[in-house]
Every structure is written in C-alpha cells, then in structure tokens.
C-alpha cells in the first residue's frame, strides 16, 4: 500500500464531529490496519507533517498518535529515514485459518462442559409459585438503609478493605448468640465463617474436606445446588435414600471414598419431611461408623408454623463432624448473598484461611450493618412478623389447592418453610403441565434427582409461596388449575 493511501484510509474513518478525540480515532484506525495487515510489515508511512497537512489537522495530533503506536510496537522509526509499520504476525488475526482454529480448538474443559450441563436455578425471583424466595416487599428496607449508611463514611475506612479470620467479628458474635438461642447450635464466634451464601459454603467444604474423585452423598431428591457445586469441585455425587423420616443413611449405598453427606433435617428440600430425633441420632451414628463429614443445610428453619423450630443436628453432635450451613437469603431477601458456616473448633483456622485465600471476602460495611440488625432486635422482629404472614399464606395455598385441584395432586404435610411439595396424579401429563403453567405465568420448581425414583420423578413439583402476596394466591392457584386441566390424559 502506498503511503498516500493511508490518508485515504484515515479520511474514510475519521469523524471530526465525533466526541472521540481525533488522536484516538487515528490511533485506532492505524492499529487495526496493522493488525489486519491492511498496513503491511515494513510499510513506510507519511511524515507527521505531511499527514497532518493532508488531513487538515494539527501536526501535534498526528505526532501523539504516532508516538503511542511506536511505544506499543505497532510502528518503528528509523533514524533519519521516517516511520514504518513494525514486523507483525505473518497471518492477520482475522484470517480464516486462525478463526477456524479458535472455534474448533479452544473449547471448554471437561469440567466446564459438565458444569454448564448440570441443573441450575430458576431465573425468576417473583411471581407464583417460584420456590425458595422470600418476600422482599415485606422487608424493612428503611431500617436496613439506615444501618448500612451508618458505616458508609470515611470514619469507617477500615470496613472498605478485605475481611479476614472468617469475617467481621461483630457479625460472627451476633450470629453465634442468635444460633445458641434459636437453633441450639453449640458454637463460639471463632467457629463461624461468613460466606456469600450456601453455594460458597458448600464449595469451601468440598475443597477442604474431600479430594477430587471422592464422593459426596446428597439427599435424593435434593436442591440442585449440591450436585452442581460438588461436581464442579471434582467430586462424585451419590443419592441417599429419603423416606417419611428424611435421609436414611443407614440403608443408603455408601460408595468407597465417600467423605461427605448433606442433609436438611429441619425441612428436607423438596419433600418437606421433618427428621425426628430418633433418625437424627441414627444418622450421626452411621456417619461416625463410616467416618463421614455431615453438612447440615438449615436453609429455612426459622419458619415452622405448628410449633417451635426444632433443635439443630449440630447441637446433638459430640464428634465434631457436623458442619452447619445457614443463610440470610430466606429470612431477609434473596439478593443479600450473605450466609455462614459453623465449623468444629479444630477446623476453624483452616476454613478461615482458605476463605481468605480463595475468595478475598469483603462487603464489611454490610456485615457491620447485619450485626447491628441482629443485635438491635430487628432480625428477630422481622422473623416473628414473617412467620405469621407465611403461615397464613401456606394455609391459604393448601386450602386453595385442595379446593381447586382435589385428587389431581397430593401435598406434603409439613407446616414449615416457604414451599409446598406436590405430587401429580397419574391422570396428569407432567411435562405438559409444566409447559402450560409457564404459559399461564406460573413457575413451578422441579426437584433435582440424583438417581431415578420412578414413583416420584416426572410427577412432583414445588410451589413456593414466599414471594406471593396473600391476595394473589387464589388467582395463582386458579391459573395452575387451568394449566392442569389442559394437561389431563
């Protein structure tokens, strides 16, 4: 390409009316021309004086653009002989062979491909009947805003950095005090590790308690997060038997190299089963006999409507093998992304160090605000208020379902949590019902099965009522009834 043609290239691409500086436009145009081999290696360019005259711009503008391109090795100067295009790749980056190579050779890893194919959560956070979502409309954001603002100032610059030692001490103290009273958890603040939610908590446990190729047992069916996170960490996932008393570890297959078992004893997800004391003691005994770590997922234990919340499994543990997982997403609002682990004393230092090294936790001003939210009684007050509200919603949902659907569905019996588990009768085409429900604006949760259960799979679904105001429940059930009536065999 003759030097004079650079002027034509620039005149075609430069826009003197643009808000982008002329120097930046020149730099971008020449840079792309070099990478694309429109300007070839060794090509001599016009002098800054000549180019400025041709473009009718300041010579300083051209010189600054040239200087930057020279500094970044797109152009070179030869003393007394002008400016040239620097040596570049033989093939331009946009050439076809490079594109083919990139598209067909640069692929996800096996682990990445597996992760993208595993079950994932629903994208919706509002509407009937999205499961697992609290009512953010009822949350006292005016209080939360005041508490957060308390720590957003230059007087609290210490909170603008990273957390260490497992999280902010004030929050760990607040959580420890709350858990001792409400959940009978035996812990001190040093055992608590603040996380960004259950997913990060499980990931941390997988990394520290098991090696790639080891096995984790999850309840079957279970929440989709557990097999997804464990698989992403290189663990094999096996399904434990769940019956009317919850996980039956004693009668489940435990593969060799099993290191972890996950259980939700206070309100099994999704079936809603509440594990009685006898089964809890039996589970701990089986875990001791097989030397397993037990992860207790206590995701919505605050919401029990026919009695006081049941004591935690961790409070019964005498071996230091139960790790308690808690979250504020159900009790407060989903997007808070704040949770915690309670680990045995002998693991606390390792978990704190690993959390800091892997995740570099921050958001200390939010942790400080949450500590005040608990200490000042706002958290307990919100729980009491929402317990009454959610109880009314569940009662109305159950009565509406029984009235509208009758024998087409059977419901779980537990009066707890933020969802109801339902099983279709054999008269209903399951997949058609799911599709028709979406057309009606109804979103149903589908349980995750690690291994087939013919009596349940393609028959059951989850109805969340946390994000559904009381006055909209009957209309939602009516829409679901319409969808099911279209799905009968």
Key words describing this protein structure:
single chain, 489 residues, alpha/beta, Arc Repressor Mutant, subunit A, Aspartate Aminotransferase, domain 2, Aspartate Aminotransferase, domain 1, 3 domains, 8-stranded mixed β-sheet, 3-stranded antiparallel β-sheet, 16 helices, 13% strand, DNA binding, transcription regulation, PyrdxlP-dep_Trfase
Structure, explained:
This protein is α/β, with parallel strands linked by helices and 489 residues long. The chain has three domains: 82 residues, Orthogonal Bundle (Arc Repressor Mutant, subunit A), CATH 1.10.10; 249 residues, Aspartate Aminotransferase, domain 2 (3-Layer(aba) Sandwich); 101 residues, Aspartate Aminotransferase, domain 1 (Alpha-Beta Complex), CATH 3.90.1150.10. Helices cover 40% and strands 13% of the residues. The chain is built from 16 helices and 14 strands. An eight-stranded mixed beta sheet has the order 4-11-10-9-8-5-6-7, sandwiched between helices. Strands 1-3-2 form a three-stranded antiparallel beta sheet. Helix 1 crosses helix 2, helix 8 runs parallel beside helix 13 and helix 9 packs across helix 10. The radius of gyration is 30 Å and the shape is elongated. The chain starts with a helix and ends with a helix.
């Amino acid at each position: 390409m003759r030097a004079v043609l650079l002027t034509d290239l620039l005149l075609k691409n430069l826009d003197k009316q643009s808000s982008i500086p002329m120097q930046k436009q020149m730099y971008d145009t020449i840079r792309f021309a070099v990478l694309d081999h429109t300007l070839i290696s060794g090509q001599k360019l016009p002098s800054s004086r000549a180019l400025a005259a041709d473009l009718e711009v300041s010579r300083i503008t051209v010189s600054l653009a040239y200087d930057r391109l020279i500094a970044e090795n797109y152009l070179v100067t030869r003393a007394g002989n002008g400016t040239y295009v620097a040596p570049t790749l033989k093939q331009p980056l946009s050439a076809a062979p490079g594109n083919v190579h990139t598209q067909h050779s640069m692929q996800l890893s096996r682990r990445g491909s597996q992760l993208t194919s595993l079950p994932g959560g629903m994208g919706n956070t509002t509407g009937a009947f999205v499961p697992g979502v609290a009512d953010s409309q009822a949350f006292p954001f005016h209080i939360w805003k005041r508490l957060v603002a308390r720590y957003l100032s230059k007087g609290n610059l210490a909170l603008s950095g990273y957390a260490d030692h497992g999280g902010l001490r004030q929050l760990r103290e607040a959580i420890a005090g709350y858990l001792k009273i409400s959940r009978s958890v035996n812990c001190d603040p040093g055992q608590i590790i603040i996380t960004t939610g259950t997913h990060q908590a499980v990931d941390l446990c997988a990394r520290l308690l098991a090696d790639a190729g080891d096995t984790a047992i999850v309840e079957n069916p279970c929440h989709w997060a557990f097999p997804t996170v464990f698989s992403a960490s290189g663990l094999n996932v096996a399904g434990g038997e769940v019956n009317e008393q919850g996980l039956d570890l004693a009668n489940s297959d435990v593969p060799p190299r099993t290191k972890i078992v996950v259980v939700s004893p206070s309100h099994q997800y999704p079936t809603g089963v509440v594990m009685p004391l006898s089964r809890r003691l039996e589970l701990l005994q089986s875990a001791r006999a097989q030397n397993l770590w037990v992860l207790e997922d206590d995701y919505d234990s605050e919401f029990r409507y026919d009695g006081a919340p049941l004591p935690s499994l961790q409070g019964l543990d005498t071996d230091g093998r139960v790790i308690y997982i808690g979250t504020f997403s159900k009790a407060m609002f989903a997007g808070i992304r704040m949770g915690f682990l309670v680990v045995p004393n002998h693991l606390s230092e390792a978990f704190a160090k690993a959390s800091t090294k892997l995740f570099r936790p921050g958001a200390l001003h939010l942790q400080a605000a949450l500590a005040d939210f608990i200490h000042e009684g706002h958290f307990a007050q919100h729980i009491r208020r929402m317990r009454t509200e959610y109880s009314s919603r569940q009662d109305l949902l159950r009565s509406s379902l029984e009235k509208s659907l009758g024998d087409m569905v059977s419901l779980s019996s537990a009066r707890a949590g933020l969802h109801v588990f339902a099983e279709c009768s054999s008269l209903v085409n399951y997949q058609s019902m799911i599709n028709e429900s979406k057309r009606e604006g109804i979103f149903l949760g589908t349980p995750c099965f690690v291994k087939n259960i013919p009596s349940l799979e393609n028959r059951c679904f989850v109805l969340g009522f946390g994000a559904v105001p009381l006055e909209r429940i009957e209309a939602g059930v009516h829409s679901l009834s319409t969808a099911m009536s279209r799905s009968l065999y």
